[in-house]
C-alpha cells in the first residue's frame, strides 16, 4: 500500500513537471512583457503553441536521417527523466535514489549531445554554427556545474539531491562563503544552459549570434513541439534545482503525509513564481553579449565554483 | 592437475605457433581467414580459462617457473587477480579484434606484412600480463613493442608511416630502458629478478621515488602520458585499423598493468606525494589529450588523441587511489582503484569499437580525413549506429558505460577532503575540475567526430559510392556496442567482479553491489550517492516510447520532404557545410591560445581583387617543441661533434685506445 502511494507521488511529480513547464515559460514571458509595458501573450500561450505545433505537418529536409527524427523523443525523454528526479514539492521519493545530481547533469548532457548531432544532420551552416557554439558553451558550463556539485556534496556530505535538500533545510548549514559562490555560479550556469539572455536570446530566430535556435532551425511540427517542451522542462529543472537546494523551505520529506505534501506544493509554486520574476527582471535589465564574451562569463562561473570547492577542501566550515 | 597458469601459457605458445605458420603461408589467399580464425579461437579459449578461474577460485594465485631464458634465472609466470583481470581485457579485445579482422583483413593490400605479426603481438601482450620476474616481463614487453612496431610499419611505402614507426621505435626503446632501470633498482644489490623477492624487499623512500619516476617514464610513455605521448597519435593510426584498435584499446592497458604491478604491488606502501604527481599528470593528460583530439581532422588520429585523454582519466583515478592508500583510507582507495580498472575495461570496449568504425569508414571510402567525409549515415546505417553508441559511451553520457566509471571516479574525488595533506587538498578538487572539463570536451569532440563523418551531406565523390561493410566487421562492432550498453546499465556486476583485484592490492574492496535493490550502485551509502543505470535506461526508454505513442496517437502524421532552409539561398555546395576545423573554432579560440599557441591569420585580397580571402590557422604542439626538439637538437649537436672521431689517423686511434685502457686501469686501481 505504502509502495503504491509512493509510486503515485512519484507519478504525480512526473506529471507535475510536465504540466507546469509551459506555464513557467508563459509566466516569465508575461512578466517580461509587463516590465516592458506591453500586454504580452496569455499565460497559457505556450500550451497553445505546443498544441498548434502538434497539429501541423512536419517538413523534413531532403537528406535528414533517422537520427534527426529520433532525436526529439530522446531529448524529451532524457530531459523529462532528469526533471522528474529533481525534488519539486517533496524530497526522498520512490525513485530519487536512481540518480544523484551528477547523473542529472549528465542526463542533460546526453540530451545536448543528441541535439547538437541533430543540428549537424541536415548539413546546413546554421545547424553547424549552432552545434559548434553549443558544445563550446557546454564545455565550460558542465565543469562549472560539476564543481558546484562538488561544493554541495562537501557541505551536505552527499550528491543525492534529497539528502542535500534535507541538509540545506536544517539549521546546521549557516551562512557559508562557499555556498554563496556556488549559488552565483549555479545561476550563471543555469542562464547559459537554458539559452537565456545574456548568453543567448530565446526570442529570436535568424540572429547571427544565436545558438540554441540555430541548432533546431530545421525542426518543425510535432518534432519541434517535443524539443520546445524539453526546453521548457529544462528551465523548470534548473529553477526547481535552485529552489530545492538554496530555498528548501516547505519541502516535504520522505514519508510525509498529505498535509506536508500540500504545503510543499504551495511552497513550490511560490518559489517558482519568485524565481521566474527574478529571471524576467534580470533578462530585461541586461543586454545580450557577443558570443565570444560567453567564455568569459562562464569562465567566471567556473572560477567561482572552483573557489567554492577549494574553500571547502580547505575547511569544511567555510 | 595442471595449474591454471600453465594452462594459460599454452595460449601465447599457440599464438606464437600461429605467427610462425602465418609467416610461411601468408601469401596464400586463405591465410587471412586462417590466422584470424586461429587467433579468435585461441583468445576465446584463454578468455574461457580465465573466466573459469575467476568464477571458481577468484582469489587463488597460481605460479610456475619454466626453464626458459637465462640459465640461472628461468622464466617465472604467475596468475593472480590483477593479471586475471588484464588477461580478460587483453583476450576479450583480442577475440573481438580477430573477429573484425576476419572481414577487415581481406581488404589488406599486403597481408604478409600484417599476418605474422598480429598473433605475435597478441602473444606478447598475454605474456607481459603473466610474467612474474623482471626478465620475463621485459622480454615480453619488448616483444610486444617490436611486434606492434612491425605492424605500424606494414604500410611502409608511406613516408609518414615510416616516420611514425621510427619515432615509435625510439620511444619504445626509451621506455624499456626506463623499465630496465626501475627493475634494476627494485632488484637491489642482491639481483633478485623475481617479482616475489621484489615484493618482499621494501625499497627505501628515495629508491621508491626513483622507481615511481622511472615507471611513469617507462609505462607512461607506452600508455601515452603527456608529455611522453608524442609517438602515440602518429603510430596508432598508421597501423591497419584493427591493429590500431588493439594498440589504443588494449596495449595502453597493458602499460597500465605494468604501472599498477610495480607501483601498487611491488613497491610496497606509497608516499602521499606520489599520489600528487600521478594525479597532476593524469589531469593534465586528460585535458590536453582531448584538446588535441578536438583540433584534429583525421578520424583515426582524433581517436588516438582521445586515447590519451582516457589514459589521463585512468591515471588520475590511480593517483587518487595512491593518495588514499598512503593515508590508510582503504575503502576510499578501493573506490578510486575500482574506478580506474572499470575505466580500463570500458575504454578497451569503446575505443576498439570506434577504431573498428574508423576502419569500416576507411575501407568503404578510402578516406580518414573527416573533411572529405559526411553523410555516411545514409550509406552505412549499421556502422553509423554502432559508432554512435561508441561516441555516446566515450563521452561519458548515461546510461552507457563511460559514465559509470567516470561517476565512480567523481565519487572517489568526493572522499578526498578527509586527506590530511594540504598539497592533496588543493590538488584533488582542481583535478576533479580537470576531469569534468575533459569529460565535457570529450562530448564536444565526439559530436564533431560523428557529426562531420556520418551526418550532413557528402563532402567528396568517394563517399557517394560507398556501401555497408562486411558482416564480420559489423558483428564485431555490434558485440562491442552491446558490451558498452551492458557495462553501463549493469555496472554492479563489473564492480563485484573487480573485488578480487582490489582486495590484495589495496587491502579493501567496494561493498557488494549486486545485492543492492534494483541493481543500483552505491559506493558508500544510499543516502550519500547512488546510481542506477538500468533504471535510467528503462526510464528513458519508457518516456521516449510514451512520447512517441502519444504523438502517434494524437498529433498530426503529415510529413513532407523539402529542401533545407537557407534563408532564401539554397545551399547547393556541400563545401558550405560546417567542417571539422570550423566546428572546433570556438573551442580553439577559448582554449587553443594557451594550450597550443594557436593563431588565426586572415589574408584578405587587395581591394578590387577577385582572389579568395584565406584564413590560416597556426597550431603548435607545445610538448613537442618544449621537450622533444631540444633533446633531438642536443643529440644532433653531439653526434655532429663526435663525427670528428671518424676521420682520425691510425696513430690517434691507437692513442685513444691506450688512454682508455689507462683510465680503466686507474679506475680499477682506485676503486675502494
From TrEMBL, chain A:
Membrane topology: Multi-pass membrane protein
Segments traversing the membrane: 12-28, 73-95, 144-167, 173-192, 235-254, 260-282, 294-314
EC number per UniProt: 1.6.5.9
Superkingdom of this protein's organism: Bacteria
Enzyme class of the recorded protein, top EC level: oxidoreductase
Keywords for this protein: Membrane, Oxidoreductase, Transmembrane, Transmembrane helix
Principal cellular location given in the protein's record: membrane
GO molecular function list: NADH dehydrogenase (quinone) (non-electrogenic) activity
Compartment list: Membrane
Protein name: NADH-quinone oxidoreductase subunit H
Amino acid at each position: 500500500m505504502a509502495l503504491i502511494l509512493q509510486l503515485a507521488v512519484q507519478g504525480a511529480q512526473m506529471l507535475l513537471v510536465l504540466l507546469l513547464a509551459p506555464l513557467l515559460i508563459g509566466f516569465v514571458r508575461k512578466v517580461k512583457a509587463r516590465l516592458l509595458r506591453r500586454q504580452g501573450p496569455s499565460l497559457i500561450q505556450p500550451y497553445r503553441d505546443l498544441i498548434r505545433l502538434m497539429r501541423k505537418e512536419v517538413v523534413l529536409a531532403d537528406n535528414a536521417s533517422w537520427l534527426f527524427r529520433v532525436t526529439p523523443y530522446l531529448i524529451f525523454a532524457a530531459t523529462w527523466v532528469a526533471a522528474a528526479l529533481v525534488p519539486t514539492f517533496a524530497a526522498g521519493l520512490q525513485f530519487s535514489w536512481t540518480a544523484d545530481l551528477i547523473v542529472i547533469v549528465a542526463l542533460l548532457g546526453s540530451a545536448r549531445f543528441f541535439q547538437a548531432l541533430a543540428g549537424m544532420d541536415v548539413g546546413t551552416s546554421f545547424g553547424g554554427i549552432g552545434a559548434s557554439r553549443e558544445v563550446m558553451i557546454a564545455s565550460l558550463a558542465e565543469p562549472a556545474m560539476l564543481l558546484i556539485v562538488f561544493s554541495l556534496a562537501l557541505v551536505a556530505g552527499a550528491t543525492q539531491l534529497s539528502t542535500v535538500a534535507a541538509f540545506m533545510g536544517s539549521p546546521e548549514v549557516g551562512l557559508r562563503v562557499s555556498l554563496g559562490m556556488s549559488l552565483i555560479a549555479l545561476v550563471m550556469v543555469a542562464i547559459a544552459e537554458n539559452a537565456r539572455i545574456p548568453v543567448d536570446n530565446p526570442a529570436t530566430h535568424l540572429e547571427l549570434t544565436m545558438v540554441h535556435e540555430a541548432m533546431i532551425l530545421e525542426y518543425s511540427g510535432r518534432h519541434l513541439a517535443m524539443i520546445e517542451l524539453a526546453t521548457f522542462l529544462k528551465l523548470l529543472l534548473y529553477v526547481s534545482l535552485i529552489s530545492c537546494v538554496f530555498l528548501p523551505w516547505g519541502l516535504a520529506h520522505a514519508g510525509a503525509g498529505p498535509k506536508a505534501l500540500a504545503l510543499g506544493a504551495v511552497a513550490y509554486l511560490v518559489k517558482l513564481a519568485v524565481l521566474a520574476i527574478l529571471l524576467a527582471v534580470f533578462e530585461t535589465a541586461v543586454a545580450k553579449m557577443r558570443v565570444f564574451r560567453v567564455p568569459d562569463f562562464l569562465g567566471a562561473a567556473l572560477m567561482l565554483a572552483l573557489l567554492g570547492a577549494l574553500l571547502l577542501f580547505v575547511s569544511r566550515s567555510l | 592437475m595442471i595449474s591454471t597458469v600453465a594452462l594459460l601459457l599454452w595460449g601465447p605458445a599457440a599464438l606464437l605457433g600461429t605467427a610462425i605458420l602465418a609467416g610461411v603461408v601468408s601469401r596464400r589467399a586463405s591465410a587471412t581467414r586462417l590466422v584470424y580464425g586461429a587467433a579468435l579461437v585461441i583468445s576465446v579459449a584463454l578468455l574461457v580459462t580465465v573466466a573459469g578461474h575467476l568464477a571458481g577460485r577468484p582469489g587463488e594465485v597460481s605460479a610456475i617457473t619454466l626453464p626458459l631464458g637465462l640459465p640461472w634465472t628461468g622464466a617465472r609466470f604467475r596468475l593472480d587477480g590483477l593479471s586475471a583481470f588484464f588477461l580478460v581485457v587483453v583476450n576479450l579485445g583480442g577475440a573481438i579484434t580477430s573477429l573484425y579482422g576476419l572481414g577487415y583483413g581481406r581488404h589488406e593490400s599486403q597481408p604478409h606484412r600484417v599476418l605474422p605479426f598480429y598473433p605475435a603481438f597478441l602473444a606478447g601482450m598475454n605474456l607481459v600480463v603473466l610474467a612474474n620476474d623482471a626478465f620475463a616481463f621485459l622480454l615480453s614487453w619488448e616483444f610486444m613493442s617490436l611486434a606492434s612496431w612491425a605492424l605500424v610499419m606494414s604500410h611502409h611505402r608511406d613516408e609518414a608511416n615510416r616516420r611514425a614507426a621510427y619515432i615509435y621505435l625510439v620511444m619504445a626503446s626509451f621506455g624499456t630502458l626506463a623499465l630496465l632501470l626501475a627493475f634494476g633498482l627494485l632488484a637491489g644489490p642482491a639481483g633478485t629478478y623475481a617479482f616475489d623477492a621484489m615484493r618482499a624487499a621494501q625499497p627505501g623512500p628515495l629508491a621508491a621515488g626513483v622507481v615511481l619516476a622511472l615507471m611513469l617514464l617507462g609505462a607512461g610513455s607506452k600508455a601515452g602520458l603527456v608529455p611522453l605521448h608524442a609517438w602515440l597519435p602518429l603510430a596508432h593510426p598508421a597501423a591497419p585499423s584493427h591493429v590500431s584498435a588493439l594498440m589504443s584499446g588494449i596495449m595502453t592497458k597493458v602499460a597500465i598493468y605494468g604501472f599498477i604491478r610495480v607501483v601498487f604491488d611491488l613497491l610496497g606502501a606509497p608516499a602521499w606525494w606520489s599520489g600528487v604527481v600521478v594525479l597532476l599528470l593524469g589531469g593534465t593528460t586528460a585535458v590536453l589529450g582531448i584538446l588535441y583530439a578536438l583540433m584534429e581532422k583525421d578520424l583515426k588520429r582524433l581517436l588516438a588523441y582521445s586515447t590519451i585523454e582516457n589514459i589521463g582519466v585512468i591515471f588520475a583515478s590511480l593517483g587518487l587511489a595512491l593518495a588514499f592508500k598512503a593515508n590508510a583510507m582503504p575503502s576510499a582507495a578501493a573506490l578510486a582503484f575500482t574506478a580506474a580498472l572499470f575505466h580500463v575495461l570500458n575504454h578497451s570496449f569503446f575505443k576498439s569499437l570506434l577504431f573498428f568504425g574508423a576502419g569500416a569508414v576507411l575501407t568503404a571510402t578510402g578516406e580518414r580525413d573527416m573533411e572529405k567525409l559526411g553523410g555516411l549515415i545514409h550509406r552505412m546505417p549499421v556502422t553509423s549506429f554502432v559508432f554512435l553508441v561508441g561516441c555516446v559511451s566515450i563521452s561519458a553520457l548515461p546510461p552507457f558505460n563511460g559514465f559509470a566509471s567516470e561517476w565512480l571516479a567523481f565519487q572517489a574525488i568526493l572522499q578526498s577532503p578527509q586527506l590530511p595533506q594540504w598539497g592533496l587538498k588543493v590538488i584533488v578538487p582542481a583535478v576533479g575540475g580537470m576531469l569534468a572539463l575533459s569529460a565535457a570536451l570529450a562530448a564536444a569532440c565526439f559530436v564533431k567526430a560523428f557529426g562531420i563523418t556520418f551526418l550532413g551531406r557528402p563532402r567528396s565523390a568517394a563517399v557517394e559510392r560507398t556501401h555497408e561493410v562486411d558482416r564480420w566487421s559489423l558483428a564485431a562492432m555490434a558485440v562491442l556496442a552491446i558490451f558498452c550498453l551492458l557495462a553501463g546499465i549493469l555496472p554492479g556486476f563489473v564492480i563485484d567482479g573487480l573485488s578480487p583485484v582490489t582486495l590484495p592490492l589495496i587491502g579493501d574492496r567496494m561493498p557488494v553491489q549486486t545485492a543492492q535493490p534494483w541493481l543500483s550502485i552505491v559506493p558508500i551509502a544510499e543516502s550519500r550517492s547512488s546510481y542506477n543505470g538500468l533504471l535510467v535506461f528503462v526510464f528513458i526508454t519508457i518516456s521516449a516510447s510514451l512520447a512517441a505513442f502519444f504523438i502517434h496517437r494524437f498529433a498530426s502524421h503529415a510529413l513532407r520532404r523539402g529542401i533545407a532552409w537557407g534563408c532564401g539561398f539554397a545551399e547547393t555546395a556541400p563545401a558550405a557545410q560546417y567542417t571539422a576545423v570550423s566546428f572546433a573554432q570556438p573551442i580553439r579560440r577559448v582554449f587553443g591560445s594557451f594550450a597550443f599557441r594557436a593563431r588565426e591569420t586572415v589574408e584578405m585580397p587587395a581591394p578590387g581583387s577577385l582572389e579568395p580571402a584565406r584564413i590560416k590557422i597556426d597550431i603548435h604542439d607545445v610538448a613537442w617543441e618544449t621537450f622533444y626538439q631540444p633533446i633531438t637538437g642536443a643529440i644532433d649537436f653531439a653526434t655532429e661533434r663526435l663525427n670528428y672521431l671518424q676521420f682520425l689517423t691510425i696513430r690517434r686511434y691507437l692513442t685513444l685506445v691506450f688512454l682508455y685502457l689507462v683510465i680503466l686501469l686507474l679506475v680499477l686501481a682506485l676503486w675502494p
